[in-house]
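Ticket #4471: structure export looks truncated?
Reporter: QA, pipeline team
Priority: medium

Steps to reproduce: submit the single chain below to the structure queue and open the exported record.
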Amino acid sequence: MIYAETYRFDLAEQYYLKARDGYAANFGRSSLNYAVALDNLGNLYSSLGLYDQDAALKEEALAIMRTTATPGDPNFIRMLANTANTYSNLNWLDDSESLLREAEQMHEQAAQQDVQNACHIPYVQGSLYLKRKHTGKPKCINPKQRN
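Actual output as written to the record:
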């Protein structure tokens, strides 16, 4: 993590890839740890503007979380919000809003509030609001053709 914060993205990527591979080897590709490692790697790619790579990793991570995490798991809520942000960056605004609503509902239903996730949700909401306000509802030109 420190490598990404000091803009040593090459070293950060090596670290995250090693973590991903280690979790896959030790816990399997359907473990929560593996899903979190994918999300972290995706966050790095997002910081580099590689949103398609980020989205692919986040989608794989969410698929794992949907089958293995308990509702209200803080990592699951954060991953939903992170993926919503990635989709917003790709102008997949409807998909972004859908995931954000899911994160909000899950957060509200969680027995224990998680402050970090509660703060991340409004950030993504603000981002979506600004994109809708200034650009309307742009048609996505991504190969997945999401609107």
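Status: closed, not a bug. The export was complete when the record was re-opened. Leaving a note from the reviewer for reference: Residues 1-68 form a domain with the Serine Threonine Protein Phosphatase 5, Tetratricopeptide repeat fold (CATH 1.25.40).
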